[in-house]
Each structure stands twice: as C-alpha cells, then as structure tokens.
Amino acid sequence: MKKIALVPGDGIGPEVISSALRVLNAAGFDGELVEFDIGYGRWRRDGKAITDDDIERMKDCDCILFGAITTPPDPGYRSVLIRIRKELDLYANIRPLRSSRIDVIIVRENTEGLYSGLEMLGDEEARTVRVITRKGSQRIAEVACRIASERKHLTIIHKANVLKSDVLFLKTCREVAERYGIRYDDMLVDAAAYNMVIRPEMFDVMVTTNLFGDILSDEGAGIVGSLGLCASANLGDRWALFEPIHGSAPDIAGNGIANPVGAIRSAAMMLEWFGEMERAQSIHQAVDRTLSKGVKTPDLGGLCTTSEFTDAVIDEMRRAGAC
C-alpha cells in the first residue's frame, strides 16, 4: 500500500489539506496516511519545528503531502520545508502555471542557490553564500529537458551577466539541452519577469535557480489569478513532496475562506507521480469545470467557503462518473 506522510502544518494548511483529502477520497485513492505534527506551532510549544526522528519517519514513506507552514523571521528558526528538501534531496521543484494567458512549467533547482543555508548574521553585516554546483545544475537541467521533450521548447533563466556563479549554471544547462536535442534559448531573469507579464505566451518550460524560480512562479501565480490556484511537486530520485505554492496566510486562517485549489491540484500531481493518471485527470478536470461555472473563493472574487468549493469539485467528479 502507498504510504504518505501527511503534513497539514499551520495557518490555512490544515484547511486546504482537508479539502485535498476529501477529493482524494472521492476519487477512490487508497493509501496509508501518516500524520506529522511539525512546523511553527510545534516550535512555539517546545522549541523544535521538526526533529531528526521526523525526518527518518518521512523516509519510511513514499512521499509527502504538505499544507503550509509559517516561517517566522527569527534567526533561531530553520525553515522546515528547506530542511525536508535537503534531507530527502528533493532537488527538482515543478510548478505548472496554466490559464487563458499562460501555459508554463517552471522547473526550479531546489537545494542550493541562495537557499543554501550558509549564512552569517552580524550587527553590521549579514551574508548568504550562493551555491551553484555542476551536479545540481546538470540534474535540474535533465529534469527540465525531459519535460520539454514532450512540449515545445526550453528557456534557461539566469543572471550570468552579473552573477558569475550563474555562468556555470547557464553553461551546464546549455550542454544538457544540446545533449538531449532540445530546442532552447536563454534569458536574463529581469527580462523574463518583464516578458511573463507582457508576453507570457513566449514561454513553455523554464529552468532556473532556486530564488529566481521562487519569485517567477509567484509572479506567474499572479498572472494565473491567485497564489491559491497553483500546485507544485518537489521531486528527488527516491522521494517526493507535493504542496500548494501559497504560504500559511495566518491572517485568514480559521475563517473558512482559503482557496483549496492549489492543495487539490497538488494531490492530483501526487497521483500522477504514483502513475494514477486517470484519477489525477478527473480531479484536474473537475476543478476546471468548477471554476468555469463561477464557483470561486474570495481571493478570486467569489463568495464560496473552502468547504463549499470542495463540495462543488466533488459534485463535478460525481457528474462525470469519476467517483
């Protein structure tokens, strides 16, 4: 039986994960759920957001379904998500962005760059080491090329004209793209940010470093319509983690108005990873039909609660005979 580490987290995390689980159940997904109490709430209680034992228990699972966790600006707090990505070597972050204006997949390196964790904080100066390796660049380029081989073309996003560490990233990505026979170009990250707003149709698959990918995918979510609509997969060679790209949104937590689409689509991406394509597609299609009927949460200008939107998705699945 498939074994899934369930991390609801805090803020709106438990609310959207609840919606994702309801949709998975309606789709007939069968798996063992192992729930983890990790994150900001636990850190406030006992000073530890996640432990070594938690990591080892996660490694005993096939993958992780993740809600959202608050990361406070406290020097003593280490990001739970970054630690999980590093410990499980989830090096490829895949973020699809689709709407009437845009159809892009951002492939983001997930374990190095400016999120290396190599930092020095002083009273007069603070430093973060930006780590770019040939191995990290090569394997993320290979993931991007495999995705691009089934689509149109690849764009390598960088800032090699200023950041000399990006020279290695760009060179390595070019080499991999040529080896795969992928049609590709490259673009400076600031130009890419501009063109995503002005001409998003020019992009297909984008591959980039950690921080650039983080920023561009949030920009893309704005073009799509809301952070709440977007899902992601964090993939390694052995494990995977699936999560909506939004944060914990503590200002609306508990109000029942969080948009669950990102979490629901993340659950569908998990099904795809397990090879259950038909179930995954039924979920994506039900979400699309629900939104097209004007059933929306407040972030999209609608009046639906999280639960009401989830009910509508499940109703669409039933009408289509998917549950």
From TrEMBL:
<dbReference type="GO" id="GO:0003862">
    <property type="term" value="F:3-isopropylmalate dehydrogenase activity"/>
</dbReference>
<dbReference type="InterPro" id="IPR011828">
    <property type="entry name" value="LEU3_arc"/>
</dbReference>
<keyword id="KW-0520">NAD</keyword>
<keyword id="KW-0028">Amino-acid biosynthesis</keyword>
<keyword id="KW-0432">Leucine biosynthesis</keyword>
<keyword id="KW-0479">Metal-binding</keyword>
<dbReference type="Pfam" id="PF00180">
    <property type="entry name" value="Iso_dh"/>
</dbReference>
<dbReference type="GO" id="GO:0006102">
    <property type="term" value="P:isocitrate metabolic process"/>
</dbReference>
<feature type="domain" description="Isopropylmalate dehydrogenase-like">
    <location>
        <begin position="3"/>
        <end position="313"/>
    </location>
</feature>
<dbReference type="GO" id="GO:0051287">
    <property type="term" value="F:NAD binding"/>
</dbReference>
<dbReference type="GO" id="GO:0000287">
    <property type="term" value="F:magnesium ion binding"/>
</dbReference>
<keyword id="KW-0100">Branched-chain amino acid biosynthesis</keyword>
<protein>
    <recommendedName>
        <fullName>3-isopropylmalate dehydrogenase</fullName>
        <ecNumber>1.1.1.85</ecNumber>
    </recommendedName>
</protein>
<keyword id="KW-0460">Magnesium</keyword>
<dbReference type="InterPro" id="IPR024084">
    <property type="entry name" value="IsoPropMal-DH-like_dom"/>
</dbReference>
<dbReference type="InterPro" id="IPR019818">
    <property type="entry name" value="IsoCit/isopropylmalate_DH_CS"/>
</dbReference>
<dbReference type="GO" id="GO:0004449">
    <property type="term" value="F:isocitrate dehydrogenase (NAD+) activity"/>
</dbReference>
<dbReference type="GO" id="GO:0009098">
    <property type="term" value="P:L-leucine biosynthetic process"/>
</dbReference>
<dbReference type="GO" id="GO:0006099">
    <property type="term" value="P:tricarboxylic acid cycle"/>
</dbReference>
<comment type="subunit">
    <text>Homodimer.</text>
</comment>
<comment type="similarity">
    <text>Belongs to the isocitrate and isopropylmalate dehydrogenases family.</text>
</comment>
<keyword id="KW-0464">Manganese</keyword>
<keyword id="KW-0560">Oxidoreductase</keyword>
